[in-house]
Design brief:
With 263 residues, the protein is of the alpha+beta class. The protein has two domains: 121 residues, no CATH class; 100 residues, GMP Synthetase, Chain A, domain 3. It is built from eight helices and eleven strands. The strands form two sheets. Strands 1, 2, 3, 4, 5 and 6 form a six-stranded mixed β-sheet that branches.
């Protein structure tokens, strides 16, 4: 039995609960985050590609698969493709009147996403976070955070491996400006702040929580507030890239305990 992919799992959850808006949002989030293999008419020429398209009664569609073997099985022949994220493909298709066929006929997540839904996803992904300034006067453990938001944050931060060390969710008091929840990100890589803020914003958006808000702040591990975050916050660990082991090669015969092999 072929192992189900994250897209298969999200599609299955949406399929058994067609009236659940949160399940549908989670599917679109997985689609945006997934690496997809876009079937092409011909091999790419530099950064120029010509996607394979087909037309049905519902309109025109391009074909994308979340596994290379699924693309090969659908095509039945060697076929050129471009590996792109779901968000990149929706950005390319937005406003073109073209839909997205995902894993057609070859997976449990087979689905036709019409052009209107592609445009909606592109617009939703484009709604980035805004910058605000607050002075934090008190940090408290997070309270009343919906479980589906915690799950969405955990899944989203798992895709941001190497961009930061960890993150802490807390409730913060902003003096006379009230209070709200903050995700304090520790030791973000230089230049990664916008991507991390956008990822958190998407987790909130696709969790389906209406009128919710979540601030994101960035700190170094040496900042005094980092220790306070660790004391009261809910910790999220981001995957870290594996350190490459240094391979030391010695010349044959240079180690007296390992004489060279003679043939």
């Amino acid at each position: 039995m072929t192992e189900r992919t994250p897209l298969d799992i999200a599609h299955g959850a949406m399929d058994i609960a067609p009236d659940d808006d949160a399940a549908r949002l989670r599917f679109f989030e997985r689609l945006a985050d997934s690496e997809l293999f876009l079937m092409l008419e011909t091999e790419a020429e530099g950064d120029r590609i010509r996607p394979e398209t087909f037309s049905v009664e519902d309109g025109q569609f391009v074909l994308a698969f979340d596994r290379e073997d699924r693309l090969a099985r659908f095509a039945g022949r060697p076929a050129p493709y471009a590996a792109l994220s779901g968000r990149a493909i929706t950005s390319m298709l937005a406003g073109q009147g073209i839909g997205l066929a995902v894993n057609p006929e070859v997976a449990p997540s087979s689905i036709l996403i019409p052009a209107g839904a592609v445009d909606w996803l592109h617009e939703t992904l484009g709604e980035g976070p805004s910058e605000v300034e607050h002075r934090i006067t008190e940090l408290l453990p997070p309270s009343g955070v919906p479980e589906r938001l915690l799950s969405a944050l955990d899944a989203k931060l798992a895709t941001a491996g190497g961009l930061a060390h960890a993150a802490y969710l807390v409730e913060a008091t902003y003096g006379s400006d009230g209070r709200g929840h903050v995700l304090g990100v520790i030791d973000a890589q230089p230049g990664a702040e916008p991507a991390l803020a956008r990822a958190v914003n998407e987790a909130l958006t696709f969790s389906g929580i209406e009128a919710g808000s979540l601030d994101v702040a960035f700190f170094a591990a040496s900042d005094p507030i980092a220790a306070r975050l660790a004391r009261v916050g809910l910790r999220f660990d981001l995957p870290q890239p594996e350190a490459r082991a240094e391979v030391v090669r010695t010349a044959p015969g240079s180690d007296p305990d390992k004489p060279p092999i003679l043939r």
